[in-house]
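job 3f2a | input accepted
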Amino acid sequence: MGNNYSSEIRTGDVLTTWNSSGTRILKYSVEMYHKGLNEHKLISAPEPDILQNKVKIQAKKWNEKWSSILHKRQLNQEKEASIEEAARRTEEATNNLIEIDNLLLHTLSVDDTVDWDSLKRNDHYPINYPEPRIKKVYPEKPREEAPSFSLIDIIIKSRKQKKLQESTSRYSAMLMQWEEQKKSIDEYNQSLEREYEQELQEWEQKKNEFLKEQEEYNKKIDELKELYFKHNVDSVVEYCDMVLNNSEYPESFPKDYELEYNPDTKILVVEYQLPSIECFPTLKEVKYVASRKELKEFYISESQVQKMFDEAMYKITLRTLHEIFESDVANAVEAISFNGWVKTINKATGREEINCILSIQVKKDQFVEIDLANVDPKVCFRNLKGVAGSKLSALTPVQPILQINKSDKRFVESYEVANQIDATTNLAAMDWEDFEHLIRELFEKEFQTTGGEVKVTQASRDGGVDAIAFDPDPIRGGKIIIQAKRYTNTVSVSAVRDLYGSVVNEGATKGILVSTADYGPDAYEFAKGKPLTLLNGSNLLHLLEKHGHHAKIDLKEAKKILADKAKG
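job 3f2a | predicted structure (568 res):
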């Protein structure tokens, strides 16, 4: 911040005047000008020293005034910058909240079908065609020049002859040197040509490898597409994985899930990690407080955060169902079983926990009839018989309707030997009487902790066993009907209807159906909203392990064993 003023002494700035008594008086003056303030002033004094002091005083006044103006300008600029920053951050916060609010609506304007052609590589080989080498050219061929002869040379023939021979010798030497240069240039150019041909050959080879690799990759995409339309298990899972991976969510949200597809039932199980409440934006507005010269942040209330979290959980669930069903052009998925998990820190123990807070199973033909643009996500979820706590933000765990068995070894590996059941015991091929007592003993152990008892009431050689459990628990207890199906094929809805009829006829509080196989979508659909629990082969193996037993279920092997027994 300089003085930013200029002063100059004009010609004739020493003035001569006379007072009334006739005495001559000298007067000195200077004109000062401040560019920033756009002010000027004429200052005069009787002595140069006094004039200089006046100039300093005026300059100080102007500088103080100018500094004050600059300071105010700076404050205004800072204030304007802060106000702009507050507005920018407020807009960003508003957009973040809107993005959460539109989680479900966003996907309705997106075609979730996988574009197979976009997955293919159609790149040009990135390395340019080799440039030909610049070859050397031959120097100009020497010219034979006739020697010049003097009068003496003409008169004395020997002298003339000598000059001719010398000229011929020089030309021959020059010609020989030229030929050597040509030979050297030819060798150099041939070397360049060989290098270029080698480089060109390597370029062609690498280009062909690049195109071949690209062709093989595109071929795999075509094969994946073909297998997907043939409902191949791995291809269906890969396709659904691509669909969910393409779905755009806020960066703070995790994108982690596991998929399992059953080709017999055409049910896709989705184990989905939902965002924790800490992943959600809470900033609502940023204001500039002039009195404190600072930015102040305003946040939505805790109840608003919890409401936003609950709504988002339902929206993500419906959105995932929509994206898979809409994109499934091969009609490989007839139903989806979705389990939403949340990873969080238990405030009481300080340990990380992951809980399933909602679970739903929906058939495609039922879901596609819903207009998601106009639904209340929670009401829609409940109407589809989804299972969840009253407040999802409480992270109350629920039992998944159908779950991926991450340690399931039914079809691949066997379990360790334990008690009377070992790794060679295929539950789906067991003798029906052995299977009957196994189920009875299993549920006896299950209900022993509450003082209950289990009694086998009926058995039949079709592989099914009926039992009644009496649970003394005053809240969830009562009479429980248990039916088991040693099946190698998908359990139909008729078996579930039969169980429900038994529950009604017996006046029981609950019915449990245990099968070595899995259930069809109709079976799960019928069980919704009813006091029925369906345990498939995976659930049965887990229940066995819980009580110290290990076994396997191999449906293909069981079919062969039972067929051989039938022939014998």
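job 3f2a | The longest strand covers residues 352-363.
job 3f2a | closed
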